[in-house]
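Is zinc ion placement plausible here? Inputs below.
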Amino acid sequence: MGKAWLGIDLGGTNTRVGLVDLGGLVAREHFSTEAAQGTGQWLDNLRQAAYKLSGQGLKPAGVGVASPGIIQRPQGVVTRSPNLPAWNGFPLADEVGKALGLPTQVENDANCYALGEFHFGAGGGRDLACFTLGTGVGGGLIIDGKLVIGPLGTGSELGHTLAVNGGRTCGCGAKGCVESYASATGLLGMLSDALDQGRETELGRKSKASDIAAAAQAGDGLAQELFSQAGWALGQAFANVATFTGLDLIILGGGVSSSWPLMANAAENALQERLHLVPPKRIEIRLAQLGDDAPLLGAPAIARDN
Ligand SMILES: [Zn+2]
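Reply from A.M.:
I modeled the complex. Tokens:
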């Protein structure tokens, strides 16, 4: 029998469960996370999904869970997970392990995303820095084939590195983080500030990040400017990460990365301006290939490596 693992992607809306072998995703299930109903119902739904996947005839050797928030190690308890309050302090690794009868590891979802792209996607097994541009900006660093977690267990929050000195206030409490610019939240915050200043644009207060992208493509000057600010912030972050790690491959994923063409020029200019110890042209920037499947494919790698 071939080797297989279960990957679980715990999202604010849906939980996705995948049976993964060394070749990739064999089969998948999903159910509504129903965060309001708490963790007991969630564990029941999870057991059912795993039972359905057992029909594939592969016996998983372990489970990797991709979770938002900060993971307390080695217990695998999730803390600081604003979209899933019921999960704050929940012993996720223990409870999933008991429910499924399998050894279980928990890892931050952006880290799992990076692992997915490393093993099965745009990384192609090359060490990389991964930025996921969504509601916020997630980050993952893979060096010597391993995730960089650090003794604090909080690595690698690339979205909260400094992009603009004294810049916009971020959800984490610091000022000028990349996330305050190159995420949906950042773009909408910048739009709101511009509207407060009476800037001319076809966009209004109810716009979404995708509306800003559509307006930029249609020639709206303010929308283009916002993406160029986002790109500039990203370029600063790319330069930082290349300087302190020596990595030469950056992977961009998440919904906002589909607007990369609107950000690329500014990012490349920032990289040119900021990166001097390494030739900027050595830094390769690739779009992620796996989309939402990346964490599902990456989480089992945690179980496999432990
Ligand atoms: Zn921050």
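Short version: The mean pLDDT is 94.
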